[in-house]
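Notes from the pairing session

We agreed to fold both candidates in a single pass and log them together. This is the raw record for the first candidate, unedited. Please don't reformat it; downstream parsing expects exactly this layout.

Candidate A
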Amino acid sequence: MTAGVVHGEVLFAAGYVTFLVLVSVGFELMVRSSHNRILQSTTVGFRFHRHLNVWECSQGNMLGLVHMDHKKGIARYKADGRVCGRCSIKHLCTDSEDGRELTHTIGHWTQSEMGRFQGGLSLTLLLLGALIVAIEAARHHSGDDLLLLGLCGVVVVSVGMRALKVIWVTNSRSPVR
């Protein structure tokens, strides 16, 4: 190989590793956005009062905490069925005679089932990228090849460390246990 030329296999590997990194980051953005949309859609028309740990509906009725599942990371709030039964917009809100129920995710998006799946998938893609970089570095020893592979390795490690930090910090500080 002449100096200043990167081997074709190394170029292909670098492109594939870049693709894996982009898929990992893109999947994280997609899951985070989806999680936030789900949270917003399930609480439209309701306002949370953190100091009271209750949700308030658009008509001023309160939904109190009735169950918290720390393992699944969800909290269930419920309104009094008698209050909902007298509400003028009940037909728009719920068909339950027991009152409106609202299920809310507690904790950070990385603690949701989607978040845990995404974290595992992203780390797997990044480990595959790191393995490809290591194998190609063992096979090709020219300065240009190693420079490109080293750059790919730095990107994979940087994105992987960020992903690990997000997962580690949010899950270790979580009220969800």
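Candidate B (folded immediately after A)
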Amino acid sequence: MDTRRWEQLGAAGGIVFVVLQGVAQGFIQTGGSEPAFSAAAPEIVDFFTTRDRRLFGLGDYFSTLSLIPFVWFLGALWARLRRSESEPAWLSLVALASGLVTAAQLVTGGGWTLAMARLDEGLDPETARLLFDQGNLGFANIWVSLASMLLATGVVSIRTQALPPWLGWTALVIALGLVIARAFWVGSSIVFAPYAIFWFWLIAASIVMIRHAGADQPTG
């Protein structure tokens, strides 16, 4: 395949990431939705013990596997921003680095997986709470690195039309929402809203990048 086809393949990684994450969460949540961040320890134990272990393991696998297309998407995004940004082109590097930090956080935030792996040995309430909180805090911290990626992407897109300006402005709004959500991560479930909207942004950005892969001209 030529360079344009490879870049299209990388851009499609954003869509594949969303699909795999959606499937993963569907499997993980089988048996009832997760309790609130501030749930009591007995409720957390019930959450883990009511999971279908095979489906949970499959969901965990798909979630980890989704990192491959996400990293490929980051490579295509960096290429798109880098071609449009003037030297020293540091914002495109910030977008790439922030995305890679997000990928690393997804790999290392497996508190829930550790809890499920120890069910046969008995899971006491305090350990369950610790692992539950570890997973949730890691997930909340991902919002900050994603906000950095979206902020850099949004600024470059607005200045250069590397992506359509509406995608740039939307990225800035989502970034602000993610930063605010991190401050209230133990509050209402509405804090998930900016991350959910990010999935739609990622699909839209992937489609635009597939259509304009390899092109040097603005997409606006």
